[in-house]
Amino acid sequence: MTEEGDISQQRGTGQIASFLEKVAKTPVTVTPPSSGKLIFAMDATASREPTWQQARQLQSSMFDVATGLGGLSMQLCFFHGMASFITSPWLHDARQLKAQMERVHCLGGLTQIGRVLEHAIKESRQQRIHAVVFIGDCVEESPDSLSQLAGKLGVLNTPLFMFQEGQDSNAEMTFRQLARLSGGAYGCFDAGSARQLADLLGAVAAFASGGHEAMRLYGRDRGGLAQLLTHQLTSR
Fold first, then answer.
1. Domains of the chain
2. N or C, where is the chain less crowded by C-beta within 10 Å?
3. CA-based nearest residue to 71, from 85, 91, 98, 51
């Protein structure tokens, strides 16, 4: 009986050793920490060149704001030219996003905001998307069609933050409507004001990473457009 027990123990020890050997040979997969997910979409048609350069310089501030609030994963989307719509992989630091943006050149063409919203709907059905930022200056599509898509994002709990450059009244009306239907917010900035755009982007980064309370605190500290954006969102 003792011999059988010794044999059983030896077999068990051998199986454990074999298992540990297999584990040692298995590649280690590092899972990134949980973080907010944000789609960063821009109109990259010809009129957008100055602001594209500005956003390229400011995008790192979004990661800086989010770092202490749980982190941020960001996907860059843009449209330009006749019918070109591009999306990046999900990015986890400012250097990756900057490298993606530096490859892009603005080209003339019509707006494709509908494709941005359709993409956001598709992504939101696959995983939780905490916010979608869109930066543009005009709308050349049917507001009714865009509103239907924004409503779908609202059902999916994916708010749109529509940031308008300039004073185009049609764009303002449509952007406000899209933000409202999705449960998001609207902001307007001047092309020459890096501080305005930085505050708007920082407020959304805080929201995507830490929720309403983080955005409220960011708006309280920064004031200006960031605080107005926070009031607009939390008043709903």
1. 36-234 (3.40.50.410)
2. N
3. 91
